[in-house]
């Protein structure tokens, strides 16, 4: 039988309420010893919590969820204490002294929910993203996975694979009896259709992009006004601005949400070829790498030099005279000209880079499993040995099983749940 774990599951203290969760076989007896008996099931009641000497620790709202129909799939207790640091510490210390109880490791409540079949791996991954979501788009994207939309689609694919496998098995069985049997006419078309559907979802931008943010690189020649624009977009003096060409040496990154879209703004060293000493040269090298890897490049320079697909910005537009209406989006950080338009452009382009939040998408791990399943389906050839076709359908099903964690390794679970905080 597993240990009984406990942790503070609500946010940083002090707060109005501190919610302590206890999960495992000894949860009920721990609650009984703190509250002087078990309250009615699934009913919020107020109880005095006392330590083993009988001293009152707090007056708390307590909830008792016995059985398997709980968030973790095992006996679960919630103590809604006053959220003072000393109050919560006193209750946690009392729990620590109860035999069979120990503090939960990061993500351990969710891990138990997974091991007890309350959520699958795709839902647990979605939950992780939901807890770390900082923008509206991240929240909506994570809701899809956490709410089971990915899992439901995988289930549907899985039952189609099973039906195809059953058709093959039926023919193989008949062959044993020396009878004539054939696969349905549309068998191969159905296999190809399923592989195509899986690839379509796998081709969508990966969920990590939504979690990590759209990378927007500000690039261009020295003194073009990159750092000034970086600061203006952030409304912060994060980068050093001077009139000396070559001020920015290193890459500077800052996260920002614009219109609910998560971005990482990246300021870089001005790109030039001549008169460059060693440190600046290294900065330029880094700038080139960021330009190559960025999702969106804002190019503050001559349109002729602009990297492919970049947005050309005509910076310092306040200095333009009326005859000098060059190419690019005019922006001035001095007058604010063109900034709202630039932000709108970024939001629009940014949404295009991210996975669609109203449809399901995969993270990198899930995508790999999905592509494996599609590749196995490609190998299903009804003109050759049907035993091999059956085997490939079995492998396709295993790949889908791995996607939702039906067949997960300890290391995989450690890696996933280790990213969660304690108490989750
Ligand atoms: N008038 C005007 N001056 C600007 C504007 N943006 C930047 N500047 C000035 O241009 C100079 C260079 O600005 P930076 O932001 O340091 O330019 P940079 O591209 O980051 O320069 P490096 O980091 O050296 O490559 C500074 O003196 C800024 O004050 C603008 O919109 N209007
Ligand atoms: K500068
Ligand atoms: Mg700069």
From TrEMBL:
Chain sites annotated for binding GTP: 223-228, 242-248, 267-270
Function: Exhibits a very high intrinsic GTPase hydrolysis rate. Involved in the addition of a carboxymethylaminomethyl (cmnm) group at the wobble position (U34) of certain tRNAs, forming tRNA-cmnm(5)s(2)U34.
Protein name in UniProt: tRNA modification GTPase MnmE
Localization terms from the record: Cytoplasm
One GO MF term: metal ion binding
Cofactor binding note: Binds 1 potassium ion per subunit.
Named cofactor requirement(s): K(+)
GO cellular component terms attached to this protein's record: cytoplasm
């Amino acid at each position: 039988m597993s240990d009984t774990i406990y942790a503070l599951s609500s946010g940083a203290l002090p707060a109005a309420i501190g919610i302590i969760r206890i999960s495992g076989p000894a949860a009920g007896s721990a609650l009984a010893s703190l509250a002087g008996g078990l309250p009615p099931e699934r009913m919020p009641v107020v109880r005095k919590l006392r330590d083993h000497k009988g001293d009152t620790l707090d007056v708390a709202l307590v909830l008792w969820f016995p059985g398997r129909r709980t968030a973790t799939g095992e006996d679960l207790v919630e103590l809604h204490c006053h959220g003072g640091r000393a109050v919560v510490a006193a209750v946690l210390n009392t729990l620590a002294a109860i035999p069979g109880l120990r503090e939960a490791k990061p993500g351990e409540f969710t891990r138990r929910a997974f091991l007890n079949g309350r959520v699958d791996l795709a839902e647990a991954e979605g939950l992780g993203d939901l807890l770390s979501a900082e923008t509206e788009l991240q929240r909506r994207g994570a809701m899809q996975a956490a709410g089971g939309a990915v899992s439901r689609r995988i289930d549907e694919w899985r039952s189609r694979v099973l039906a195809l496998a059953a058709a093959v098995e039926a023919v193989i069985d008949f062959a044993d009896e020396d009878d004539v049997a054939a696969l349905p006419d549309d068998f191969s078309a159905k296999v190809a259709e399923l592989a195509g559907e899986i690839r379509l979802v796998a081709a969508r931008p990966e969920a990590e992009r939504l979690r990590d943010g759209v990378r927007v690189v500000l690039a261009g020649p020295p003194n073009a006004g990159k750092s000034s624009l970086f600061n203006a977009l952030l409304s912060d003096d994060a980068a050093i601005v001077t009139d000396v060409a070559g001020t920015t040496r290193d890459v500077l990154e800052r996260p920002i949400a614009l219109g609910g879209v998560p971005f990482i703004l990246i300021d870089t060293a001005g790109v030039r070829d001549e008169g460059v000493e060693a440190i600046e040269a290294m900065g330029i090298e880094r700038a080139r790498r960021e330009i190559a890897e960025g999702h969106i490049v804002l190019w503050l320079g001559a349109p002729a030099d602009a990297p492919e697909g970049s947005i050309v910005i005509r910076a310092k537009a306040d200095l333009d005279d009326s005859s000098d209406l060059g190419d690019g989006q005019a922006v001035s950080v001095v007058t604010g000209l063109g900034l709202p338009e630039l932000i709108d452009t970024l939001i629009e382009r940014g949404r295009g880079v991210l996975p669609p939040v109203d449809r399901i998408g995969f993270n990198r791990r899930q995508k790999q499993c999905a592509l494996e399943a599609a590749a196995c389906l490609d190998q299903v050839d009804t003109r050759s040995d049907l035993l091999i076709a059956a085997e490939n359908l079995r492998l396709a099903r295993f790949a889908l099983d791995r996607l939702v964690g039906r067949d997960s390794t300890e290391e995989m679970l450690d890696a996933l749940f280790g990213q969660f905080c304690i108490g989750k």
